[in-house]
Structures are given as structure tokens and as C-alpha cells.
Amino acid sequence: MAEFDNSYARLPERFYTRIAPEPVPAPEIVLRNDALAASLGVADWGAEVFAGNAVPGGATPLAQAYAGHQFGGWSPQLGDGRAVLLGEVATEAGRFDIHLKGAGPTPYSRGGDGRAWIGPVLREFLVSEFMHAAGVPTTRALAAVRTGMTVRRERDYPGAVLTRVAASHIRVGTFQYFTARGDTEAVEILADHVRARHFPEAEGVCGLYRAMIAAQARLIARWMGLGFVHGVMNTDNMAVSGETIDYGPCAFIDGYSPAACYSSIDRFGRYAYEQQPTIAHWNLAQLGSCLVPLAERELGSEAAAVAALTQELEAFPDLYQAQWIAVFGAKLGIAEPGHEDVALVQDLLGLMARDGADFTNTFRGLVDGSARDWMLDREAFDAWQARWERRRSAEAAAAMAQANPAVIPRNHRIEEAIAASLEGDDGKARRLARVLLRPFDLAGDDRDLAVPPREEERVTRTFCGT
Length: 466
Description:
InterPro entries: SelO
Largest sheet: 7 strands, antiparallel
Organism: Celeribacter indicus
Strand content: 5-15%
GO molecular function, one term: magnesium ion binding
Number of helices: 15
Structural class: alpha+beta
Protein name: Protein nucleotidyltransferase YdiU
Function: Nucleotidyltransferase involved in the post-translational modification of proteins. It can catalyze the addition of adenosine monophosphate (AMP) or uridine monophosphate (UMP) to a protein, resulting in modifications known as AMPylation and UMPylation.
Helix content: 40-55%
Distance between the termini: 34 Å
């Protein structure tokens, strides 16, 4: 049985609002993560808990307060407008938040209905579990349930709730919420809480900031290695733990373009694929500004605090670059990738962009020898391959197979699964969930899921669930 130890609920009351999830009329499980449920000690939970109709013993439901920069514009109060944190489950592997997304309105809903519909819930379940299987730090999906309610967006949709699991749900925007109110005491309490929960070895304010910066550098590099476009990298959607959070209008690149942008609300490409490291750096700068008063206490002056935090922030590009070449070096089977390999990777990406080559299949093709088939300018690829062969490790094939997934949650396949689910057929969603749990090992019967979309199947716009 799960043991709740709700450390966030022990923080001052201005950090959250206690509120229970609103019951729904007819909860029905669509997808359930049995392995994750067992590891958390919640294998006995059913649809009633996952929908919010029953609150497990020891849970302390609450909605967290936070603020954020959304597409660069400042919003001083956001918060959990359609989600409720049940509490934290303590396990041998650590503590994990269990969070109901779509659980009804809260004081932070800003006029919204607090609900979710089945499409975004299935997308987050499928994509987040794939990301975990592919080795990317991420929130997890425990269950997706229908609610028996109708949710109104551009039309009526069947309502749903996602049960999400995370190391925590503390965001850059959580720090910003208190900084905007001049509440330095709360910023300090939050920093101590984050250190205890995520970075216990970090010393001092600068050490904590350094750890959070390094976590983001690791995360974004792994996104880039999968051709993942988050789509809404607002500061309220950046978890300080270094996990991917809030899979709204996210997507994976099919035909490679560094400017790939799918989000329907990102009209100017602020969060395009190639922009993600820059935006992470910008978001971290906003986090650093929140820590200035704490660093000032340690270092004796505001000028010293700003200089020290700036020095930590300026390390991000090099930290990210080191993580990026490690990720792509592994994809190319280079045993000890270094600065001299950056041009090799960039030249391949350049060829892929020029030809619109499929991102996932080109890299997987380096494993099985089919990469050339995805290129239009095969003579140029042959010249690149000769350079690559000189750098590739002789024993690289097995390692490369574990660095280059054979299957990803392709945008058109997710849309197919959502469309089928709207008609009452959850088979496609369940098949995707099964296959995406083993993305490096694709069985013959499932190879159709690795095929890029035909022109008429291409998904060029993705949408938030609100």
C-alpha cells in the first residue's frame, strides 16, 4: 500500500489552496500503467481514485500556486487551474507526486472549467511514457480515465482525467510567484524545499542554481536527440527538477527542419525545435533573478549576488553543448564524442534538413544501414558517411540501437488513436501504449508504426487541451 508523506502540504498555506477533486458521473479506465502502479504501491487503485471520486487515505489534495512568463508575457498568477495534487507517495526509490489533471475547477482556474478531454489526456499518457522508455527525464502517466462528462471546447468532447506522477510539480513559475509579491521568505522556504527534495548535495544558493541549470541542460539535449518539440516552454511549464512537464501542443519531427514548430498558439515560432536551448537559457535567467535576494544574504551585497548567479547562468551554453554532443555522439556510435564531432553531427542534420529526411528513421538507419534510403542527395550522404565511418566505434551497433528509437509517438498516429477513441474504440491507443514502452525493439507486426505519414496524414498543428 502507498504511504503518503505530503511535504508540500506542510509548507505555508500561501503556497497552495486545499481543494478536493470534483467527482464525475461515470469513471472508466482507458489506459492504466500497471508496472508504475505496482512500483508506487497503488496497484489496488481503480477508476474511482483515478477520476477523483475517491481520495485515498493519507492524501492531502491541493492546488499549487505559481506564476509565469507565457510566450514572453508576464502572468502574475496562474496556478493549478484544472489539476489537484493528491500528495506524495514515499517509496524506496524516493517520493513522487500523484496529480489528477482535469479534476475540476480550482481558485486558479481563471474562468476555465477545470476539465480535460480525452484527446490531450491520451496524448500526454502516450508521449510521457515513451519519453520515460527512451531515457528522457519526464513526468509519468499512471492512468487515463473517461469521466462520463462532456467537455466543451470548439465542440463537445468526452471528458477525461489523467493521473500524472512526477518527482515534483515545482516550476520556475513557482519561484516567480513569490518574487513578484516581494515574499523573500517564501522564496527561501521554496529553495530549501527544492534542495531537500531534488538536490540535497547542492551547497548554498549558487550551488542549488548550478544544479538546476545542469538538470535543464541534460533535459533539453535529450529532447533534441529525439526531435521532440515541447511547444509551450513557458516558465510555468519548466519543472525545476529537470523533468519534462506539461505535454500540451507537443510533437515529434517527421521530415527534419530545425525550425519545426507545431503549436497552434506559437504563432511566431518562439518555441520551435532549434529555439529550445535558447528558451531554456532565458527561463533559467528568470529563475536566477528570483534567487538574487537569497544570494545577497550569503555574499553580502546585491552586486556580488548578481555576479555570482550570472556566472552560473553563463555556464549553461557549454553545459548544454557537452550534453548535446554526448547525446548525438551516442546516436552516431562515437565512443568518446568531443568538440571535433560537432561539425560531423551538424553536417548530417544539414543534409537531413535540405532533403526533409525523416528524423527518426534516418538515425535508426545508421544502425541497420538504411539511412541512405531516406536522403535525396545520396552522393552528399556518401561523402558524409565516409567521414562518419572513420569516427564510429567498431563495436557501436548495439549501443547505437539503444540510442536511436525504432518508433516514436508520431503525430498522425496519436491523432488516429484520439479519433478512434472519440468513436469508442480504444484499441489504437492501447496498441501505441504497448509498442511505445519498448521503442528500441520493434516487432515485425508493429513496423507500420515506424512509417512516416503520407502527405495527407501529416499533422502540422497541435493544440492545448484548454
